[in-house]
Design brief:
mainly alpha; globular
């Protein structure tokens, strides 16, 4: 099973051969997304300049609605990509006579999506009830801190290999067990359908639950309309990728797309950490030490768009978040490279025992 996971990830995360039609279509898709994103950013800047004369007043409203919609859209899109990646790995071998098994997986995924929506209303109701007994600033600081923690988990820079490979490998192991048992007549058809449906449900609901937890902070601060707008953008982009994957059967560069959205989420994380630190300052959880010489340098729009404020606490929190993400990413790459070299050494030793013995003597 340890060797099965790299093969799974290679089949659904690695890009096709250079020069192939799949590669050209994948590059065209990525370029199209980048162009759309560039037009979106330019459009937002133009709209912002016309409607708010360059920068909205941070005193009138906390945070920027456009930035919030962008953050939510990126997160929902990335979670959608991960769900699609897992579902694609599950149904990859369901072809020919086994194609009928795709239906329960699809039904389970649909139930997982509906369950995510239901969880949203439950979580929003709980937070709304808490707002009646807990001061608003304290509740905003608490939900914002939860959102930052969830975002760190979603980015999973340090655990990206386990997060993708292990999660997909577990689903494929369970699927293989169900199908093998069905062929041996060890389980009923009803149990087989339920098991496959449960795989589809878990693939979607896990990501949906993370999104629900993350969005509580935005819902509390800016209302449901902002959350709905960003969620719709993320779902539309995810639906587009899903159609290409499951209807048009296009082989997309999932890994590159996940890395690209991960970089975008890194930017979102820095904004959220700065905003969260300011929330904690307003709630009295931490102190506020202003940097006088930065006060005249950092304009108001930097706080509105990027949550950069001239205080020691907010800047230190953002620097720590950047160090944590970048450092853990390179640590993960180092561990992955070490594991790859170890696997190559094992293969070489199996093919040439004399080389292995020589290496052992040198190491000794």
């Amino acid at each position: 099973m340890q060797n099965a996971q790299p093969r799974i990830m290679q089949g659904f995360s690695s890009s096709p051969k250079v020069g192939s039609p799949e590669t050209r279509r994948g590059h065209f898709f990525i370029r199209g997304l980048l162009i759309l994103a560039a037009f979106f950013v330019v459009g937002v800047l133009v709209w912002q300049g016309i409607s708010a004369h360059g920068s909205p007043d941070p005193i009138q409203a906390h945070g920027n609605q456009t930035v919030a919609i962008f953050d939510i859209g990126v997160l929902v899109f990335r979670e959608g990509l991960e769900s699609i990646l897992v579902l694609a790995a599950i149904v990859a071998s369901m072809v020919g006579t086994n194609a009928v098994h795709r239906r329960p997986v699809a039904h389970g995924a649909g139930v997982g999506f509906l369950a995510s929506i239901s969880t949203w209303f439950i979580a929003a109701g709980i937070v709304s009830n808490l707002s009646e007994s807990i001061p608003a600033l304290d509740l905003q600081a608490g939900t914002g801190l939860l959102a930052v923690v969830v975002l760190l988990v979603v980015m999973n820079w340090f655990f990206h290999k386990v997060y993708w490979g292990g999660w997909i490998g577990m689903h494929n192991k369970r699927k293989k067990s169900l199908l093998d048992s069905a062929q041996d007549a060890e389980i009923s058809s009803q149990r087989l359908l339920f098991g496959l449906g449960l795989l589809g449900f878990a693939s979607v609901y896990r990501e949906g639950f993370e999104v629900v937890l993350f969005l509580q902070s935005y819902n509390l601060q800016m209302g449901g309309n902002i959350v709905l707008g960003g969620t719709i953008i993320g779902l539309v982009l995810s639906g587009f990728v899903a159609v290409l994957t499951f209807v048009a059967h296009k082989r997309l560069p999932y890994r590159k797309m996940l890395v690209l959205t991960g970089i975008m989420l890194g930017f979102v994380l820095l904004v959220m950490v700065g905003e969260q630190a300011q929330e904690m300052q307003l709630a009295g959880w931490i102190s506020t030490i202003k940097i006088d010489w930065l006060t005249g340098i950092v304009p108001d729009w930097m706080g509105v768009w990027f949550s950069i404020y001239p205080t020691i606490e907010t800047l230190a929190a953002q620097l720590f978040a950047a160090f944590l993400v970048i450092g853990s990413y390179y640590m993960a790459r180092r561990q992955t490279s070490g594991l790859r070299r170890k696997n190559i050494g094992v293969v070489a030793s199996q093919q040439n025992p004399r080389v292995a013995s020589s290496d052992e003597l040198i190491a000794g």
